[in-house]
């Protein structure tokens, strides 16, 4: 592999790795280099590599095995290309409409999560929050960690129907998170504000304050909506 000199964002790293896989550089079943090795080779931080791998995992292109590493799954090149095209940035109107849906669903989900969360649920939410903090420190979008956080909250509701609904619109949410963060991050202080809002959601769920959890989740989503309407 040649040194990665120009591309810096995780989306471009994901695209680069995708091309390596499709071209046969990494065949199905092959183990990818470690986060550190990929980061050093491509000239990016490990958090950037982690987000890139997360997007590839979402597409079903790779599998992450705890304690073993990351492996390439079997794939059809045309399906992979189509999947990447489906992850194109969402339009502003699509983002607004999706936020309207998310306000209805996720405020109630946060309420249930506060009432029903377990230690394992809190650990998942904490991990996502930590990844968001790392992304903030690295100056990257962190949209993959954002989705991970919101889905962890849904899982903490222990309502399978809600989980199914969120997964059914997960692709649209991931596209909108990427596009909205691109827009919102143009304003100084917004990245820090978004992180703090997620931290408040976590604290309310941890404290089992269902009313507060619903309120801060709604406040967060309304804030994003208002920014996108400016």
UniProtKB/TrEMBL annotation:
Matching CDD domains: WHTH_GntR (cd07377)
InterPro entries named among the record's database cross-references: GntR_C (IPR011711), TF_FadR/GntR_C (IPR008920), Tscrpt_reg_HTH_GntR (IPR000524), WH-like_DNA-bd_sf (IPR036388), WH_DNA-bd_sf (IPR036390)
Domain of life of the native organism: Bacteria
Entry-linked Pfam families: FCD (PF07729), GntR (PF00392)
Molecular function terms, GO-annotated: DNA binding; DNA-binding transcription factor activity
PROSITE patterns in the cross-refs: HTH_GNTR
Start and end residues of each HTH gntR-type domain: 7-75
Entry keywords, A to Z: DNA-binding, Pyruvate, Transcription, Transcription regulation
PANTHER family with a match to the protein in the record: TRANSCRIPTIONAL REGULATOR, GNTR FAMILY, UXU OPERON TRANSCRIPTIONAL REGULATOR
Annotated protein name in UniProt: FadR family transcriptional regulator
Organism: Aneurinibacillus thermoaerophilus
